[in-house]
Amino acid sequence: SIKIIGEETDNFAQGYFVYDSKKAGAVTVSHLRFGPRPIRSTYLISQASFIACHQFPFVEKYDMLSAAAPGATFLLNVPFDTSEAWDKLPREVQKQIIDRKLKFYAINAYEVAKKTGMGGRINTIMQTCFFALSGVLPRDEAIAKIKETIKKTYGRKGDDVVKMNYHAVDQAVANMHEIPVPAQPTSKTTMPPTVSDKAPEFVRTVTATIMAGRGDDLPVSAMPADGTWPTATTQWEKRNIALEIPEWDPAVCIQCGKCSIACPHAAIRAKLYDPALLAKAPKTFKSVDAKGKEFEGHKWTIQIAPEDCTGCGVCVHACPAKNKTEPSRKAINMTFQPPLREQERENYEFFLSIPDYDRSKLKLTTIKGSQLCRPLFEYSGACAGCGETPYVKLLSQLFGDRAVIGNATGCSSIYGGNLPTTPYTVNADGRGPAWNNSLFEDAAEFSFGFRLTLDKQAEFARELLKELSGTIGDNLVTALLNADQSTEAGIAEQRARAAELKGKLAGSKDARAAQLASLADVLVRKSVWALGGDGWAYDIGYGGLDHVLASGRNLNVLVLDTQVYSNTGGQCSKATPIGAVAKFAAGGKPIAKKDLGMIAMSYGNIYVAQVAMGSSDAQTVRAFIEAESYDGPSLLIAYSHCIAHGIDMTTGFDQQKAAVASGAWPLYRFDPRLAEQGKNPLQLDSKEPSISFTDYAYQETRFKMLTKANPEAAKALAEQAQKNVVSKWHLIRQMAEIRYGDAPSAAK
Questions:
Q1: Which 3-state string (H, E, C) describes 15-64?
Q2: CATH topology classification for 563-737
């Protein structure tokens, strides 16, 4: 809007934008001024003549009408019939509209978008309504200029896309209605509190104030003196941004856990529990008998968090179970959220109160077993359908209660450490990931520091154990020093020993006892991770990463490979494939993707795996567990689909599967422990390519757009990409077929 007015008319324009760093359901407040004279205002608008709210849930969260001038116009997008708009407003909002004599308009932009083929994109529709109501330009002139802009912006995507946008513009005004405003408020609902009264005091007083957009009102004295912020706080946001959420059908469910592992936001979860717990369940809470002999006598529930779900639909797409009588339906199906919101909120609260299944009794190497572990990374601000977060969530499920994570700057640090809320959380025992972020370029070195520190602390603790064995007791000291912590049961036993140790040391006047008590927890095996994207691992942080991997120390590295600098806007990295269009590679990347896995394998003592959850979730889980159990450096390279690829994020797993099927992303695991057994350490987990490179690539805008902009270059790059795929596939297959253990006899 500001671009159209500023560039296409004689008016001057000014815009200030206040926004958060959420990538799904983000809040952006645009303060726009227009006029015939230069605008030199250096402050935000406090008396607006026009206010538009594009997301109805924001009405329940933010006091947006406090900035409305008397007689101003208020435009609201509603996810229901506009005739219901007034009655759905909180009483406080109705009173503001009446007291300020506002003109109130409503439109169901989602319905217009759906009918005009725009999917969930409402920007063009709301922009048209703005011009129709604001009076900044005559309506006909404004619509003509909007269509000119559409042609310029979307012309390269084809005439069909342009026509859809034109149709949406024409339908916008026809579906916008002025809402009669009565003399008195009539609503029976009131503004809900920003966070639940069950939240901790700091969250209620400080975090909630920032969440409500009033952070500037907080005094300095309210800030944490040492700069630390509590974790486990995204659970209080309840952003309520999904129009549709998945609904579970117990009769169809095969209890595989695929919906849960695919969910980018930990908003759909599975639990096994004692049937006796259902005595206190809400009436609408669903359950079914658990499948499998090992779970006999238990109940199984798949539960959705209705106010934390982003509505991406990934879980439904991943669900393999179909209704035999109605093949179009699955074990979970997307359903309009508003009618389900209250009951599913109650159901989810009850679900969370059910104790987690004993993880020491689970087969964590299976999808089902891993998904019965509580996620300790939940409700992040990542994009709906994000390809990165399922891996981070899986890491938190398998190792989160003892994980120490150093995060590179990028998408994963933005949704991982977003002020004022944090998605990393704790289990019922108060244990969860210890997380920190230093810089873009030093995540490997930063995490390496964690490893060195923990190792030194453990060494000191073992020395003190031996020195104080007379006080502690030889049996406990021996058990602590020789504990087998290769299993969940072994780790639980070591935790119990550490607690016993603290008890024995309590009250001792020996200074060494106090030191040992403070170090007792480091005797429990920690899982240290360096986490980041390809921009870090392949480019700016590669030198440090190589140094750390070559150290031989027990550090795990997870590379969330989106093949582009996602957080900064889609710039080309060394992980970008040949032929892909990205910023700084507008003509298509001319050279092949850097093979980070092959480089790491050349050392021989690094565990290396290349995974794609959408192609093989089972191989992904195995790789995570093997990497973490390896007493040495490990590198996991995870295919992470991204909005920068130009795909439907709901079907991102399909693209992962296609990448593997084409041979562009072979799945493998390189385990040095196998070489010690005389076996080939390289295990190839994917089959020979069954589709061409272009069958995969041309399903993505980043590749396909070059066929229109420069067909000859696109063809040449695609042919080279296919040659690269074939040669690399032959190479890795030959490596995997090498026989180990048959060393040639020494020359005589």
A1: EEEEECCCCCCCCEEEEEEEECCCCCCCCCCCCEEEEEECCHHHHHCCCH
A2: Rossmann fold (3.40.50)
